[in-house]
Amino acid sequence: MTARLRTLLTDTPLLVIAGFVIVAALPSLGLGFYWQRQVMLIAVYTLLCSGLNLSFGYAGELALGQVAVFASGAYVAAILFNHGHTDILLAFLVATALAGVAGLISGIPGLRLSHWSLALVSFFFVLLIPSLVSILDEYTGGSAGLPGVLGPTLFGRPLFGRDFYLVAIAATLLWMLVLRNMVVSRFGTFLRVMAESPTLAESLGGSVHLLQIQAYVIGALPAGIAGVLFTYMTGFISPTTFTLSLLIAVLAATVLGGADSVWGAPVGAAILVLGPLQAASFQKYSSAVYGIFLVFVGVVFSMGLAGLARIVRRRLLLRRLARAGGTEAAGELGELSIPGERLEVAGVAKAFAGLKALNGVDLTVEPGTITAIIGANGAGKTTLLNLISGVLRADAGTVTLAGRPITGLRAHQVSRLGVGRTFQTPLIPPRMTVLEVVESGRLRSGAVGLLPAILRLPRYYRVRREDRAAALVALSFAGLEQLAHHPAGSLPLGTRRLLEVVRAVAGKPHVLLLDEPAAGLDDEGLRELEMLMRRTREAGGTVVLVEHNVPFVMSVADRVHAMELGRVIASGPPDVVRRDQRVIDSYLGRRGRTEPDAAPRAGVPSESGVA
Amino acid sequence: MTATTATGPLLDVTGVRVAYGDLVAVWEVSLQLRAGSITALVGRNGAGKTTLVNGLCGLLPVKAGTVVLDGRDVTALPAWSRVARGLTVVQEGKRVFRELTVRDNLVLGLRGGGVKRAAREGELAMLYERFPILGECRRQRAADLSGGQQQMLAIATALATKPRVLLVDEPSSGLAPVFVDLVFEALSALRDEGLAILLVEQLVDEVLGGIADEVIVLERGRVALRDRAANLAVEDVAASIYSSL
Amino acid sequence: MTIVWAGLSVGAVYALTAIGYNITMTFGGVFNFAHGAFVILSAFFSWYVMVDLGWPWWSAALLGAVLGALLGGLEELVAVRPVLRRTDTRALLVTTVGAFVVIEGVLAATWGATPKSVGFFAGEDAFTFLGGRMAPVDVWLVVVAVAAGAGLHLFSRRSLWGLAARGATSDPDAAKARGINVGALRAGGFALAGALAGLLGPLVTPKTGASVGIAVSMTIFGFVALAVGGFGSFAGCVVGGLLIGLIQAYGSRYLGVEYPPLLLFVVLLAVLLLRPTGLFGKHGMRAV
């Protein structure tokens, strides 16, 4: 119980809440009307920036529709007010619903198109605002605008002055906490993974399309809230507010605060409202300065102010952990049982541009064994892994996992059924800590759980505890516990390769597919990898290993399949395959001579890619 | 600094280290390529052969060491500029511009070699004469050629850049035997015309059966064995490549 | 018929903007978000040279071309090349949006405080043609847009430069290995697009006027023209531009001036969803 209380305490951003409480109390301490307005403006910009944080900073898509959604929220509030619906909660509700729809519209084309097509579709919204306002001028007042929208009600009580100020600050805080809870959860982890590598997100069981749509829709919501607040704050709206300049300013503030940070938003917003660019001498050139700033940030890809803060915090955290003598859960590591299942591949074939990369491959992998696949470049090994894991679709044949056909499923579906994998080039989001990377391997088990995460229900804490425990055990399999809080990007290549395996193991996969895990490892790394693989097998796991390093394969594998030109040419225990003449010929490059019937395999993509 | 290169190596590589990202795949390799000779580079998959070739031709940065082409240090030059100076690569996997016609592929090669427009048709005619199978299909898209024809086109395009040093990465990979013979014949002819050729090859028997003058075995990014081809038996090389199996 | 001519001439402006986008895509494989801003910059520059300085139109065209080429090349060097050196090129969107904002911001702070207009060098008198009224500038615009589209189509297909660009965008590494300077090609594309925008200033500005406010619509409608015509096709740019010009003219005439953006938004969504390759594009610029 005390432990749970402690988690609750450490998990709650007390400092931020305290900050908001102080801000809320400022008017009682004598903050004047002008400054109250400035603070509320910061709150409005904070909401706008926080939405961009989610879609651009976390999910990696530059959606430029934020100002249009802002406008829709503002007009919704004004129109409701003028029709006698003054309750601010109703306005929030309708505005967020509309914002969600706008996010959906701008997000759907993005699913099929490139990043910049999406940016332009959402940019189009800027142009639609004046157009829609004048088409609907009966409600919107056209270009003249709507005046006198002041004094909304909350449960029948009118809000003026300080009361409205309190509501504005409270609404902003509430949203920020919701956002923060979403970002610090499986959902947020998925978004960060997706921004680094969609392929990786799919392999961890996340549907990239669904995640993107969620990011757009959720990212649009705070702009709707901001619109409502803005209307009631100024009491007057007209289309001239919602311009390109505003969009640019919000974009710059977001990037300045740190696009992939929750608390960067209020900082960026405050600088935007109070900062030097508001000085009269600068204002004229503010837009140009924002532009230079965007180019600069894009080129050096700085992490914004929040990024700097994070580096400092991590340093402090590391020092504290070092003083405490190790990671929090050390000493109470549980067991990790990995429920391996039988994997059967039957008659699988795949051709690229009419040329056969796989030509009828059969193999069966038994639970609790390590099965290796060897063969020269272009033999079809990686193609086979990609077919099993759903990255590619087979032309013919079936793949079954524990008797259940998984042929034709998409990568994230295969992953959710229990197939974990690693990649030839390690896909490790560099800005996550090692522990976070390993925990991300747990994503494929169970739901993302957005609602439990937002409300921080007991279920969220239970899942998080389990994730943490499994991650620590998996790390200890490879002897990497002491690196848990280091940023993954700082690890050398060999350790990142091990980390990929650890991440897959933490997800307790029924089948674990390893794509050349030994490439580039030194002897020490090879030993650690071997230990990790043996432990995985002992825990019950089914391991499939594609590898060039033949001595390593021979020492670790229970069964070896040798492939050549898209077919299995020899199978059996390592000692038998090692002596097979066809395997030796294949490795000495005698294939063109010993197999006169071999068809030319022009155009088969090399094995270096994952897709 | 004008080195007399009449007898010296055309390409002098000293202690190069090449990394792919932060994975160092080639460690301090030195080699010399002489005019009118073929040096074969063999080794297991993942030994670093392609990485070395990409470092030499400028597609990957060289982290240490020098690449000197005919007395001139080209270590810091980009790939396109090395081509202009006579160092051309035939990349692995039949890398031709698939959407362009055979002729257009060759024209781009001539452009890279700085051939003037006026001389273009003559040069093309010579290339078609040397590679009759390309002359027959000069108007076809490269994507519609067979694998063997594509490989010949890749070599012909490289030749169009007027190289003095040619790096050829696994030209026989995935080819029917008849095309393998064609490729090796073409390379032999080029050697006899005075080119310095580095040939990355998996067919150990072929390499030692006459085409190579010198053999370098690469293992884990380092030179494991280096000798005149005549001094080596197939078993030596095989043992070196396959020793650990 | 007057509506048709009006639509075609506005459409020609969008077509020329789309051609500008397509140049950097064809020669450098990069979408330049800032191209609409180049068009607006060129409009103000024409006003400056022709009205403020009182120099002849051709000097505005020539100087505009030089300025556009320089700025285009500069953008490539500062905002594009450093990003392409990294593996994650998503930031290209941020930097080219940044370039757009810089140009727009500088203009807003200087010449752009008030909208400007420029007279057309070949006469202002409208005449009747095939039953519709049109001004000389309308004819010129359509003719120049078609000529530019056709010329660039031929240039990209036939010239050595175009050939090299097709190779470089399809396989940059193989292109480098063939002696093609891929970076120079891309910078050349940016310079060419900038030069085209600058060159056409004295022609486009009499139609559009010079104002910061139209930067957004120029950027977006140019993109719609490109999307409708098909990414990568110069012929498509012209057809797409003229088509959306007609939609805009008819929409304004029969529904009201506030409707065309809405109509074009629907058209854009429909094209992107139903036919991402556009009318003439071979391969849509799809996300992987």
Give a short summary of the structure.
Chain B is an alpha/beta fold and 245 residues long.
Structural write-up:
The complex is a heterotrimer of chains A (611), B (245) and C (288). With 611 residues, chain A is of the alpha/beta class. Chain A has helices at 2-11, 14-25, 33-58, 66-82, 88-112, 115-135, 137-140, 161-183, 186-196, 198-203, 208-234, 244-257, 264-274, 280-283, 286-300, 304-324, 381-388, 411-416, 434-440, 450-455, 458-477, 493-506, 523-538, 550-556, 574-579, 581-587, 591-594, and strands at residues 153-154, 157-158, 343-352, 355-365, 370-375, 396-401, 404-405, 419-421, 511-515, 542-546, 559-564, 567-572. In chain A, the strands form 3 sheets. In chain A, strands 8-9-10-5-11-12 form a 6-stranded mixed sheet, with helices on both faces. In chain A, helix 5 (88-112) packs antiparallel against helix 11 (208-234), helix 19 packs across helix 22 and helix 21 (458-477) crosses helix 22 (493-506). Chain B has helices at residues 49-57, 79-84, 102-112, 117-130, 132-135, 147-160, 177-192, 204-211, 234-242; strands at residues 11-20, 23-33, 37-42, 62-69, 72-73, 87-90, 165-169, 196-200, 214-219, 222-228. Chain B has 245 residues and is α/β, with parallel strands linked by helices. Chain B is 37% helix and 26% strand. Chain B is globular and about 45 Å long. In chain B, a hairpin with a 2-residue loop joins strand 4 (62-69) and strand 5 (72-73). In chain B, the strands form 2 sheets. A 6-stranded mixed sheet of chain B has the order 6-7-8-3-9-10, sandwiched between helices. In chain B, strands 2-1-4-5 form a 4-stranded antiparallel sheet, covered by helices on one side. The model of chain B is unreliable at 1-5 (pLDDT under 50). Chain C is mostly helical and 288 residues long. Chain C is built from 12 helices and 2 strands; from the N terminus they run ααααββαααααααα. Chain C has a two-stranded antiparallel sheet with strand order 1-2. The longest helix of chain C has 28 residues, at 57-84. The radius of gyration of chain C is 18 Å and the shape is globular. The chains are: A alpha/beta (611), B alpha/beta (245), C mainly alpha (288). Chains in contact: A-B, A-C, B-C. At the A-C interface, helix 5, helix 6, helix 12 and helix 15 of A face helix 3, helix 4, helix 10 and helix 12 of C.
